[in-house]
Amino acid sequence: MIDRYLLRYLLAVVDKGSFTKAAAHCGVSQPTLSAGIAKLEAEVGAALLLRSNRRVELTGLGVRWVERARRIEREFTLGEQEARLPDAQSTLRLGVVSSLPSTWMEEALRAARLGGRPYRIEIVEASEKLLLERLDRGRLDVLLSVVRGARSRFSDVIFEEGYGLVLPSDHPLAQKQNIDAEEVADSQMIVRRHCEALSATSGHFTARGVRPFMSARTTNDNQALGYVRAGHGLTVMPDCFADEDIAMARLSGFDLRREIGFVHDRIPEERRHSEALTAIRDTLLERHAKLRQAFPHLA
């Protein structure tokens, strides 16, 4: 039987990128960690890591063992947490991407509270990248986040949307449904630093020779909307932020879209289809449908 601490050593080397950093993370000496990795490879019967002076790489077998080790560590962590609970009620650790409207989440969580038994919900809000890292390390059970790439294999998509250019309601271009980047070349722009589309947005303007003055940088969408309403600048946001007190138009030629849904890593069916997650999904679906009716040019 392979000891759990050996799997932790392997994951630490992969996550930290070196034996020295991994040993410090695990609270052991480097020789102790190296001996542990050697013991694990002996028990497996093959090399898991390729060592060099500059970096550590996984062998093909090592890649498969890291996947197994993460699953095992997640189950251990979940079991330990459930064992510490005072009753049979367990906690569902939900990661929420920070680029969703707070009003949507407020309504969704209110619905989940009414239908959330037998799970308590622990919410962690962060960027897409940080949430995925925590999911991989077993610190979260499921994400309400952007669905993309290989992650789509273990996901349940709720809705799809595009991105719009957000303007004050009294802006000269506020009545337009499509706006060229060149039309706002002289406008101030607000940078949403946490947005998963930030790089694509920046590239869209740069490719058209538009380099506006950045009047604010924020990781808070409510703050970004406040800046827009105050006339402090324009910004690009997902369609879900469309509202009556701002104007939102399509940015001509910017066709990026995103899928929002639950992202997980083979969590038990009873958790995936719990009343709480079902309530959240249904609420977001309803809000998305209402938005498409209210703003048909964004559909």
From TrEMBL:
This protein's record includes keyword Protein biosynthesis: no
Short name of one Pfam family = LysR_substrate
This molecule's function is given as:
Transcriptional regulator of the ttuABCDE tartrate utilization operon.
Q: Where is the HTH lysR-type domain?
A: 2-59
A GO molecular-function annotation = DNA-binding transcription factor activity
Q: Which UniProt keywords apply?
A: DNA-binding, Lipoprotein, Plasmid, Transcription, Transcription regulation
Supply the name of the protein. HTH-type transcriptional regulator TtuA
Q: Tell me where on the tree of life, at the top rank, the source sits.
A: Bacteria
